[in-house]
Request: fold
Amino acid sequence: MEQKITKNIKKIYNHICNMGVSKNLSIFITVLFSTVLLLIFFALPQVLPKYSNHIFGGYQSFVIPYDAEIIDNQIYKKIVWIEDINIDDIDTYTFLAIKDPTTELVTIEKVFSYDEESREIITSPDGVIANRTSYDDIDGAYIKESSSLGIFYYYVSRPLGLIVMSVCFAGALAIGYIVFVKNEQ
Reply:
């Protein structure tokens, strides 16, 4: 898919170059088009969450990790990847993202047993404390912690991050236009 996008960008660039515009203007238009595509990519989790979930094989969430460290009476959260899970796929020792309905906090907990009749599972956030959790409180299955690039993507794909990134792109494009295109004319 990446090769197809690259080919399309090259076609657009060649088409613009053949229109009789300057090389700097054609480069600026190509960069502008690429910037818009990048902003659409960043906005995908906000605009089309189901489609984004399908593309990335899950979604990112800010959670309390399994066996979380408590430092100075504070629990530090992490950004992790979570995928949707079918209730039939739950097995013992599976790590699940459990959403507390009262506080809306999501924790990663390990499954120790489950009861399909009562639709409850027994989980533990640290291997010591046991919680009885309803199937309805399961947010998904834990996949992995996010990398540095994933953490950047998480923050940029939120509304405030989109605004900040849009302003940065607009500023960079304005400077590029003034330096390369306007000075050429």
